[in-house]
Amino acid sequence: MKEISKLLGYREDIRVVDATLRDGGLVNDFYFTDEFVKALYQANIKAGVDYMEVGYKASKELFDPKKFGKWKFCNDDDIFEVFGSDPLIPLACMADVGRCDFKNDIRPKADSPLSLIRVATYINTIPAAIEMIEDAHKKGYETSCNIMAITTAQEGDVKVALDMIGQSPVDVVYIVDSFGYLYPESLARLADMYLECGAKYGKKIGIHAHNNQQLAFANTIEAVGDGVDWCDATYFGMGRGAGNCSMENLLGFLRNPKYNLFPVLNFIETHMTKLREEGVVWGYDLQYLMTGILNQHPRTAISFTKEKRQDYTEFYKELIGLD
């Protein structure tokens, strides 16, 4: 059990990363208006959020720019146009292994508004992820590594992957509960493993949680109590499928006086509720609970949602292969 004194106090090393544009963009194909993005930026500044993730560095060879908003690609010139030449909060973007042209699309830090490159990988593409980390590091960026779908990997493979990443110049290594499968007890076990690697190699550890079982916030604060320093969150929990740890929950929990909940609530009232009214759908529902319990990718639940199905028991039988 965590010491109550640790939960009532705060650590200066905690960093909050707003992933609304990136993970939330998976819900609406990254079609956010400039007005929305600028308002979110100002809300983050006022709320004391430490980093703002603005989307992906996706390859235009693999993804048709006509089918996505500009935050799918995060062209530096587009970022400059919205955020100005000298952003008041460090900006980040995610680069997926095999889905980006990082050598050409990620310019040297001196020519970019970005500060942090977040490399996303599966456990079987760690060497490629390390190549991307090294490239971004040489270009002058802070870097993080998100090993996705970690709950489907063998523990021995996770330890080997962490050792490989630990020897790279990466700054932060993330625990990623892609399918919303973890409970706080299992999260604590993973956190111990990651923190041991972090202590060995001098890396920070982060947490990115999904809300399939309504445990994204619980798992995030479990990680904080265990010693994890970097926390991802999104406004109103907006994110793929069941969504993420909500920013309003997280800032309401953290005790550092630099964080301010009011701008978050104001942005949600003004902008996030409008998205919901316009028909953008995300958040916990029974179909996401099922895929979370079964440790499955939520793509089937997302399709269930888009088709506006309500035959939950039939869907569950499909998931478990019961004819």
What does this structure look like?
- An eight-stranded parallel barrel has the order 1-2-3-4-5-6-7-8, surrounded by five helices.
- Helix 3 runs antiparallel to helix 11 and helix 7 packs parallel to helix 8.
- It is globular.
- 44% of the residues lie in helices and 14% in strands.
- It is of the alpha/beta class.
- The protein is built from 14 helices and eight strands.
- The chain has two domains: 269 residues, Aldolase class I (TIM Barrel); 35 residues, no CATH class.
List the helices and strands and how they pair.
Elements (H helix, E strand, L loop, with lengths): L3 H5 L6 E4 L1 H9 L5 H14 L3 E6 L19 H8 L7 E6 L5 H4 L8 E8 L4 H13 L3 E6 L7 H12 L5 E6 L6 H18 L2 E6 L6 H11 L3 E4 L13 H7 L8 H16 L8 H8 L5 H8 L5 H9 L3
Parallel strand pairs: 1-2, 1-8, 2-3, 3-4, 4-5, 5-6, 6-7, 7-8
Summary, kept brief:
This protein is α/β, with parallel strands linked by helices and 323 residues long. The protein has helices at residues 4-8, 20-28, 34-47, 76-83, 102-105, 126-138, 155-166, 184-201, 216-226, 247-253, 262-277, 286-293, 299-306, 312-320; strands at residues 15-18, 51-56, 91-96, 114-121, 142-147, 172-177, 204-209, 230-233. β6 (172-177), α8 and β7 form a beta-alpha-beta unit.
